[in-house]
Amino acid sequence: MDLDTLYLVINMKKSKTVEEYISKVPKGMQSKLKELRTLIKKIAPKAIERISYGMPFYDYKGRLAYFASMKGYIGLYIPPPIIADHAKELQKYATTKSAVHLPLEKLPAALIKKLVKARLKYNESKFIE
Question: Which domain holds residue 85?
Answer without folding.
Answer: 3-124
